[in-house]
């Protein structure tokens, strides 16, 4: 894989049953040209052997902190800093707690405390453990420290329960590793949330897509939902977007045969089945996730992205100090995803933006299309009383370079169907 031949990953294998999937992750990393050094915890050794990891990685598997030969050269320090990325999978509740508390009682925890490189973890545990207040606190602390998360996923568990807590699949972890290692993502846009969950590539294209659909063979990116910009671990800046219109658009494109990469913020509606889902929280994460799935034939930027983020977000919950004055929040402008993709080197042939306006809807939408450089703008009136944000219907206005089309008030699914058909027609014209 281009640009990955000189990259190295330090892979720490935690003590969960999901560890049996780690040999496959090592294989995928080596196939991608990434060097892998493995560290096997005592618990991880119950599910996979050092010999297996050594054979697949082509390097010695480490497990003991007190290796005197290596420790004469401070081997644990060298291990922690010679890689470009440290990956923990499965990241058990115990490992997460040790990381959050800064403990260093074995090789794995010592490496994690000594490293000066980015850390990506793939949590795996019982759903009740994942939802426990202590784990939630540890997640918030790790997020505030800049630790990257991939997963966990929802599904059946080895304990017989169902819920969120399954480790992300090896392909999903690989995708997150590639994003964290660079893949063209600029440092300010480094992923910093546990909400990025990349679905396995073989989960798409959708099985229900009609074989003769007009978008068969096309890859389309859809962004959806709000973004959440942290103020502290429990507060954030957001908007009222439900994500319903974006989800409907992704489903309509899927039904016309497209392979859809669905990049969604914390929406109130679930993603449609049969699409590749990338979950994010912040605008920076959304921009990075969109870039990670390019190239594409078209992009529909339906997300309601926050314009601003808090630069001085606190790692702890902000408390009243008795002064009666609110905390001072330093704000910075978020990346403009629509303007960026409209001018990107891998620009899709059709870029569709959205304009949620409260006044001068058409004039503002026309100006936005020209300013951003996109091909189309879908505008709607979200003023008080319109019922569009969070509602079932939408009154859309399609603004193109040629004209302005006023669509009647329609269910969001019907708006999505009309837009998907227009996209299919435009891409067909461009191919002729």
Strand content: 15-25%
**How would you state the average pLDDT, rounded?**
84
| Tally of separate helices | 14
In whole angstroms, the N-to-C terminal distance is 33 Å
What is the CATH superfamily of the largest domain? Answer: CoaB-like
The biggest beta sheet is recorded as:
8 strands, mixed
In short:
The protein is α/β, with parallel strands linked by helices. Helices cover 32% and strands 22% of the residues.
Tell me about this structure.
This protein is α/β, with parallel strands linked by helices. It has 2 domains: 8-181, Rossmann fold; 201-431, 3-Layer(aba) Sandwich (Rossmann fold). Helices cover 32% and strands 22% of the residues. The strands form 6 sheets. Strands 12-11-8-13-16-17-19-20 form an 8-stranded mixed beta sheet, sandwiched between helices. A 5-stranded parallel beta sheet has the order 2-1-3-4-5, sandwiched between helices. A two-stranded antiparallel ribbon has the order 6-7. α1 links the parallel β1 and β2 (35-40). It is globular and about 70 Å long.
What attributes does this structure have?
22% strand; 2 domains; alpha/beta; five-stranded parallel beta sheet; Rossmann fold; 432 residues; 14 helices; globular; single chain
Structural topology:
Elements: E1 8-13, H1 22-31, E2 35-40, H2 50-57, H3 68-71, H4 75-82, E3 85-91, H5 93-101, H6 107-114, E4 119-123, H7 127-131, H8 133-144, E5 148-149, E6 153-156, E7 162-166, H9 170-181, E8 219-224, E9 229-232, E10 235-237, H10 244-255, E11 259-264, E12 276-279, H11 283-293, E13 298-301, E14 308-310, E15 331-333, H12 337-342, E16 350-357, H13 361-372, E17 376-381, E18 393-394, E19 396-399, E20 404-406, E21 410-411, H14 412-431
Parallel strand pairs: 1-2, 1-3, 3-4, 4-5, 8-11, 8-13, 11-12, 13-16, 16-17
Antiparallel strand pairs: 6-7, 9-10, 14-15, 17-19, 18-21, 19-20
